[in-house]
C-alpha cells in the first residue's frame, strides 16, 4: 500500500480511526485518573480538578465536594489535581491559598485535606492507584470476555514447518508439541509467537513432546523486520513453525516433493498416497497478513517467502497430514471445499471459564504482557532492538482504527492491552510519571525526610524534557514511516 492509498483509506474511515482513538484513550485516561481520585478521597485528600484532556475547558461542573469535573479541548490525556499541589503533575506544593486577590496561609482544616501533608504511605497509595486500576480494568475486560465468549486457545503444536526456516534447521517436525520455552510453560500457540517475537535472535531452550518422548532443543530464531500496511516497522524473532489455525487449499499446491502438478485430481491422489508420512509441498498465492508474523518469514536469498506489499507469501512447507483428518479430501465438486488439514488437533477452541478461572487467566495474561513489554523496553535500552519501534499517538491511532473495523471483541482486547501498557509505563521510575513520584516517596521512607523540593523540581524538569523528547521522537518517527 503506497502513501496515497493509505491516506485515501484513512480518509474514507476517518470517523472510525479518529473516533475509536478518542473513545479508547478517553476511557483509559478516565480509568487511570479515577484510580488517583477515588484513593485520594479515601485517604482524606481534597481533589480540586478532574480533567479528561488538556487545554481549554469544553464542558464541566463542580460537585458537592468542590471537585471540578471537566472535558478539555485536547483529548490526548488528562489529570487529577490534588489540593495543595502547585500543578497537576504534583511537581511541587504550597501551603498558600489564593482567596480572591488575597494570598493567605492554609487553615488547619485545609492542611488536613492537602495531599502534601499526608503520611508517605497514603501519598504512595494515591499515586500507585492510577497504574493499579489500569491493570484492574484490563483484568476485568479480559475476564469478562473469557466468561462471555470463552478464552480462545490454539494448541501449541507445529502443524507444519517452513522450508529453509530456522525451525527446519534445528530439526523441528510436524506435530511437535511445545511444552516450554526458556523454562516458561507454553499453553497456547500464541505463547510461542510472543516468546519468539521478544527473543529476536537470542537462543532459547525448547522442551517438546514428539511421539510420546520429551526432547530438548536449543533454538536461535531469526531476527527480521516486519512492516505492516501503514509502514510501521518492528523487529521480531521468527522460527518458522506453522500453527493449527487453518488448512491449505488444494488449489494453492503446485508441487509435492519437488514434482510440479497442474491437475487438481493428481495433487489429491498424491496427497492421499502420502498420508501419515512427512513430505514437502510447494505453494502459490498463499498470503499471510503481515500482522501475524509468527506464520511468516522474511529471508533474503532463500525460497522460503517473498515480501509483497503488505503481505508475505509462503512458498514451501514440510507437512505430515493424517488420513483420518482428511477423509473428505477430494469428495466435493467445489474446489473451494478441498482443504488439506495439517494439524492433528483441532485448530482452535474457546475454553469456557467460571468467574474465578477467568480472573486467574486474565491475571496471568496481564503478567505475561507486562514481562514482554519490559523485555522489549530493555532491548531498546541496550540497543538490541531499534528505538524506531517506539510508537506514538499516530501509531496507536492507526492500530486502534484498524482494530475497530474488525469488531467490538478485538477492540476490547486492544483496550485491555493498552490499559496494561499505560499502567506499565506510568510505573517506570521517571520523574513526572507515577513511578517517579513513588521513587521519591521510597527515598523519603528510607531516609526519614522528604527529598529537598529543589532537587525534586530539577528532577521533574529533566523528566518533563525527557518525556516531551520521547513523545516528539515517537510521533515524528510514526509520521516518517507513514510517508516513506
Descriptive notes:
The protein folds into two domains: 13-149 and 355-483, no CATH class; 160-351, Roll (Pdz3 Domain), CATH 2.30.42.10. The protein is 42% helix and 23% strand. It has twelve helices and 23 strands. The chain has helices at residues 3-12, 14-42, 108-112, 120-149, 166-169, 189-199, 264-273, 355-382, 393-404, 408-426, 434-447, 453-483; strands at residues 47-62, 68-82, 96-99, 102-105, 151-153, 160-162, 177-181, 184-185, 204-210, 213-219, 222-227, 233-238, 241-242, 248-249, 253-256, 259-260, 279-283, 287-289, 305-308, 311-314, 316-319, 339-340, 349-351. The strands form eight sheets. It has a six-stranded antiparallel beta sheet. It is elongated and about 95 Å long. Mean pLDDT is 84; it is low at 286-312.
Layout of strands and helices, then pairs:
Elements: H1 3-12, H2 14-42, E1 47-62, E2 68-82, E3 96-99, E4 102-105, H3 108-112, H4 120-149, E5 151-153, E6 160-162, H5 166-169, E7 177-181, E8 184-185, H6 189-199, E9 204-210, E10 213-219, E11 222-227, E12 233-238, E13 241-242, E14 248-249, E15 253-256, E16 259-260, H7 264-273, E17 279-283, E18 287-289, E19 305-308, E20 311-314, E21 316-319, E22 339-340, E23 349-351, H8 355-382, H9 393-404, H10 408-426, H11 434-447, H12 453-483
Helix pairs in contact: 2-4, 2-9, 4-8, 4-10, 4-11, 8-10
Amino acid at each position: 500500500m503506497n502513501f496515497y492509498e493509505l491516506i485515501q483509506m484513512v480518509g474514507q474511515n476517518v470517523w472510525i480511526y479518529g473516533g475509536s482513538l478518542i473513545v479508547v484513550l478517553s476511557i483509559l485516561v478516565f480509568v487511570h485518573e479515577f484510580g488517583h481520585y477515588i484513593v485520594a478521597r479515601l485517604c482524606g485528600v481534597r481533589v480540586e480538578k478532574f480533567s479528561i484532556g488538556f487545554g481549554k475547558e469544553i464542558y464541566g461542573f463542580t460537585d458537592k465536594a468542590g471537585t471540578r469535573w471537566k472535558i478539555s479541548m485536547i483529548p490526548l490525556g488528562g489529570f487529577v489535581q490534588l489540593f495543595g499541589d502547585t500543578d497537576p503533575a504534583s511537581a511541587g506544593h504550597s501551603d498558600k491559598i489564593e482567596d480572591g486577590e488575597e494570598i493567605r496561609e492554609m487553615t488547619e482544616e485545609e492542611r488536613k485535606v492537602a495531599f502534601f501533608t499526608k503520611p508517605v504511605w497514603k501519598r504512595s497509595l494515591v499515586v500507585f492507584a492510577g497504574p493499579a486500576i489500569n491493570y484492574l480494568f484490563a483484568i476485568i475486560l479480559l475476564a469478562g470476555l473469557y466468561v462471555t465468549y470463552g478464552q480462545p486457545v490454539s494448541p501449541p503444536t507445529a502443524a507444519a514447518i517452513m522450508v529453509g526456516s530456522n525451525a527446519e534447521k534445528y530439526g523441528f517436525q510436524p506435530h511437535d508439541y511445545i511444552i516450554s520455552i526458556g523454562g516458561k510453560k507454553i499453553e497456547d500457540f500464541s505463547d510461542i509467537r510472543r516468546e519468539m517475537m521478544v527473543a529476536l535472535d537470542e537462543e532459547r531452550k525448547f522442551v517438546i513432546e514428539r511421539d510420546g518422548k520429551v526432547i530438548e532443543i536449543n533454538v536461535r530464531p531469526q531476527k527480521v523486520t516486519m512492516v505492516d500496511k501503514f509502514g510501521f516497522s518492528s523487529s521480531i524473532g521468527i522460527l518458522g513453525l506453522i500453527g493449527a489455525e487453518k488448512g491449505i487449499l488444494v488449489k494453492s499446491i503446485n508441487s509435492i516433493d519437488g514434482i510440479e502438478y497442474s491437475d487438481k485430481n493428481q495433487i489429491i491422489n498424491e496427497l492421499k498416497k502420502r498420508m501419515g508420512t512427512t513430505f514437502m509441498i510447494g505453494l502459490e498465492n498463499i498470503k499471510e497478513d503481515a500482522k501475524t508474523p509468527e506464520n511468516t518469514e522474511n529471508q533474503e536469498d532463500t525460497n522460503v517467502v517473498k515480501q509483497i506489499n503488505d503481505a508475505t507469501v509462503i512458498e514451501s512447507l514440510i507437512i505430515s497430514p493424517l488420513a483420518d483428518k482428511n477423509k473428505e479430501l477430494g469428495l466435493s465438486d467445489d474446489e473451494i471445499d478441498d482443504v488439506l488439514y495439517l494439524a492433528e488437533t483441532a485448530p482452535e477452541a474457546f475454553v469456557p471459564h467460571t468467574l474465578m478461572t477467568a480472573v486467574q487467566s486474565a491475571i496471568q495474561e496481564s503478567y505475561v504482557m507486562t514481562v514482554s513489554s519490559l523485555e522489549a523496553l530493555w532491548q531498546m535500552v541496550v540497543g538490541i532492538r531499534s528505538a524506531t519501534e517506539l510508537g506514538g499517538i499516530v501509531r496507536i491511532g492507526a492500530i486502534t482504527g484498524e482494530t475497530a473495523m474488525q469488531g467490538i471483541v478485538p477492540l476490547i482486547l486492544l483496550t485491555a492491552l493498552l490499559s496494561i501498557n499505560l499502567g506499565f509505563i506510568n510505573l517506570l521510575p521517571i520523574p513526572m510519571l507515577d513511578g517517579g513520584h513513588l521513587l521519591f516517596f521510597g527515598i523519603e521512607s528510607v531516609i526519614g525526610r522528604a527529598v529537598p523540593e529543589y532537587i525534586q523540581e530539577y528532577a521533574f524538569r529533566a523528566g518533563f524534557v525527557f518525556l516531551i523528547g520521547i513523545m516528539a521522537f515517537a510521533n515524528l518517527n510514526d509520521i516518517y514511516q507513514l510517508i516513506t
